[in-house]
Amino acid sequence: MAINWFKYSAPSTFYGLAGKLIPWFSWSAAILFPVGLYISFFVAPTDAQQSEAYRIMFIHVPASILSMFIYLVMAAYAALGLVFNTRLSSMMASALAPTGALFAFISLWTGALWGKPMWGAWWVWDARLTSELILLFLYLGFIALHASIDDPRRADRAAALLAIVGSVNVPIIYFSVKWWNTLHQGATVSFSGTTMHVVMQQALYTMLLACWLYAVAVVLARVRGIILERERKSLWVLDLPESKQ
Amino acid sequence: MNWGDFFAMRGYAFYIWGAYGMALLIFITEIVAVRHRKKAALQQLRLLRDAGVDE
Question: What are phi and psi of A37, to 5 degrees?
Answer without folding.
Answer: -70, -35
